[in-house]
Amino acid sequence: MNHPVIAIGLDAADPLLIETWMSQGHLKNLKQLCDRGLYTRLKTFNYYRAETPWTTFLTGCSPQNTGYWAPVKFHEGTYEVEEIEAYDFSEHPPFYALGDDYQVAVFDMPQSTLSEQVNGLQVLAWGAHSPLTPSHSKPAGLLEALIQKHGEHPRLRKDHASCMNVAALKRLQSDIQVGIARRSAICQDLLQRQPWDLFLTIFGETHSAGHYLWHLSQPSHPLYETYKDQVSGDPLLEVFESVDRAIGEILDKAPKDAQVVVFAAHGMGNNVMDLPSMVFLPELLYRFNFGKPALAPGQLGAPPSEPITKGRVERGWIGAVWGLKHDANRLRSWLRQKLPNKLFKHVEPLFGKDSQPDLVSPFKLIEQGDALFFQPAVWYKPFWSQMRAFALPSYSEGYIRINLKGREPEGIVEPSEYEALCDELSQLLYNLKDARTGQPMVKQIVRTRQQPDQRDPKLPDADLVIIWQEEHVTDVVDSPELGRIGPVPYSRTGSHRSDGFLMAQGPGIEPGSSAPEGHALDLAPTVLSLMGASIPPHFEGRPLIETLILAK
């Protein structure tokens, strides 16, 4: 006999945090699920880990098979990049598109699509973090009806705040918790409308909170000591406690014989990616190509100055980083750092135009409507055609594109030079060190092409993927060859890890059982197996529930 499945995702919820807080007596509903059923860890891919987990979950396929690596696309044949929507699912539909044989309800699944093959209801982009899909539903009027009854999510597509503005972070936390309560009410409502074979929802609030509240919770972050006295309690834990309560409320309305699955396809930790990928890498490649700094020059060998926690940060992270732009004109450099951006925009023309090309200002990009204005890599775009290699915009690892002849419109690297250049860049990056600790910055460099002429459209845009060290948060780095970069102000304080988890409770699952560590690819087969539905042959994972090991 098949039982209904209630699947609840906690977006980017780190298993170590969950396990620690459960052991301390917090998250009582999750602890009860663990005690009454199964718990195991999951892994996902160790690069492009911020962008691919939900597509992996939805399709049961790796990015090598979907060709979807990131929501930012570099267009071969140009030097243009753009922010794109989710995977189009034309080759691999969402796993829950099961046709007439199953009644399915999907609420606020991020990075998905409305499928004609779902017998039930679908609501997308009500409040998910980075939904990458329009706010719409099937039936068409359902989303608006739910908003009218329960309210909208206060932070849809604006779930961010400066990590150095505690008042803004407190408002973010409050709004996130309002969203959690409304999500709970909507899920309870939908659960009671009719019996479902599968009910799926995702708490995106754990993702948002992890990015922006991490340093207010975790003593290992360098900013924790600076800001801990400005908050009471643990804001990140409070968000997770709200989620835990909401899960209890939702399950109270679920059928008593339901199989319950709670999972995270990836996790979160100290942010060791944003500054290296978004700031240090594009600046390092600029210096590699032109032999001079463009941003945040520092004195190699000198003790690093204190982390930037005041002064420039009141201008916002983008303004603070842009204020560090290298400028031979000392007065203009000083004014760029000190004046409000709106005022400096009027003062700058008084200095006349530079004879040489320059970085493009993020504020000019805003005026032009460029959605990637906040990505420093894009500030260097005027130079990409002149560079042997350049950094692509990133939300996680570092991505390098070789300016290859025959592939790029103004390519300058001969195919015969491709391997040697990759070797040279790799050595340069392996020599890069955290200026505060002396620790190497790079853990691994992945080459995505064995030959320079590989043009498979399913390959990543990057030729080299830089996997950074995960032990220390870094705001200043030293290159023996190219000098110091930084300090620069911290951005988001939590970043992604490849660790996730799975909890499952219900008929046939023994209390206290476990399973071997799984993979994010195993999530969709596990849900389908619990439903008694067939698993498509192209799925790359396996049902974890079939490999139960009774805990001793």
CATH superfamily of the largest domain: Alkaline Phosphatase, subunit A
What structural class results from the helix and strand content? alpha/beta
User: How far is it from the N-terminal to the C-terminal residue, by CA?
Assistant: 28 Å
- The protein's oligomeric status is single chain
Unreliable sequence segments: 548-552
For the record, the CATH class of the largest domain is Alpha Beta
Form type: globular
Beta strand %: 15-25%
What is the helical fraction, as a range of percent?
A: 25-40%
CATH architecture descriptor text of the largest domain? 3-Layer(aba) Sandwich
Radius of gyration: 24 Å
**Might you state the CATH topology name of the largest domain?**
Alkaline Phosphatase, subunit A
Q: What number is the mean pLDDT? A: 93
Number of helices: 17
How many domains in all?
Answer: 2
Brief rundown of the structure:
The protein has 17 helices and 22 strands.
Structure commentary:
With 552 residues, the protein is an alpha/beta fold. The protein has 2 domains: 5-271 and 496-547, Alkaline Phosphatase, subunit A (3-Layer(aba) Sandwich), CATH 3.40.720; 274-311 and 357-491, no CATH class. The chain is built from 17 helices and 22 strands. The strands form 5 sheets. Strands 1, 2, 5, 6, 7, 8, 9, 20, 21 and 22 form a 10-stranded mixed sheet that branches. Strand 17 (477-479) and strand 18 form a beta hairpin. Helix 6 (166-191) runs antiparallel to helix 7, helix 6 (166-191) packs parallel to helix 9 (235-252) and helix 7 runs antiparallel to helix 9 (235-252). Residues 548-552 have low confidence and may be disordered.
